[in-house]
Amino acid sequence: MAAPGYGKQSAPEQLPRSAADFSHLPAREAYIASLIDHLPDGAAMDVKTLAILQPHYGQMACRTVLNNLSTAGHLRRVRERISSKDCRWVFRTYFSRTPRSNAWWTRFITTGEASTPGAPDPPKERTLNRTSPTSAAYAALAGLGLADARLALSAADCAALEPLAAEWLARGTTPALFTAALTAGLPPDGVHSPVAFTRRRLLDKMPPERPHPEPPTTRIIECTDCRTPCRPPALLGGLCGTCRGTWKAPPPHRHLSPATVRAHAARIRETMPSYKGCR
């Protein structure tokens, strides 16, 4: 895991996992992307850590993979100011197994909004026949059964409990903390009614409301490769112009001949009063 506040951060509104998530990528990129996708939020995902986590690719290969994943729309590196009261910043890498466009990432980085009304991203046809994309609250409830089979909920149970779970998330609870709070200390003799038990815990353990909500997070996007802060329009595929190879160096200065240099020096000496007084 990275230091608190750093490391991987999952992008919102991703599609459910499937075998075809990274089929559009080359084999190396798909392998590393799948590895990153299964890392928990907050996990370190720098090139050194990725090289240690798997035996096939070294640090240079992992660096190239991260650049390619950025270009393919799967990740962006971001600096976030964690509080308006001081100047402390955290450095996060947002990852999405669902590829996103440059416009989507720009909107999310600058406004914190993941989608635009009337233009959902991702498309609806890949949302397992639901009429709307799965909400974060619904996904958190559905994931309880994966964390502990004793709290396996049906689709109807998740829909019924979704408003309570949404209130938890609205009060600042992360999906990881939500799962930990709901699955901790389950009765050893089993749970006879998972939906009733979960509803009771949602009500009894409801976190307190935040007295003063924080203002919108200040984010600065970085180049995935060189980590240079840039404005979003300057980063195509998460890479700055230099790392994309589109930046052109200025033409070299024309070298002056020795005679031209001596002539320039003579004209400068003539304009210097202190030099004239010494002659």
How would you describe this protein?
By secondary structure, the protein is α+β, with helices and mostly antiparallel strands. The protein folds into 2 domains: 1-112 and 217-279, no CATH class; 122-215, no CATH class. The protein has 12 helices and 4 strands, in the order βαααββααααααβααα. It has helices at 27-37, 47-53, 59-71, 102-111, 136-142, 144-147, 155-170, 175-183, 194-204, 241-244, 258-270, 273-278, and strands at 7-10, 75-81, 89-95, 218-222. Strands 1-3-2-4 form a 4-stranded mixed β-sheet. Helix 1 crosses helix 3. The chain is elongated, with a radius of gyration of 27 Å. It starts with 6 loop residues before the first strand and ends with a helix. The relative contact order is 0.12. Residues 116-132 have low confidence and may be disordered.
Task: Write a short abstract of this structure.
Helix content is 40%, strand content 8%. The chain has helices at 27-37, 47-53, 59-71, 102-111, 136-142, 144-147, 155-170, 175-183, 194-204, 241-244, 258-270, 273-278; strands at 7-10, 75-81, 89-95, 218-222. The N and C termini lie far apart (73 Å).
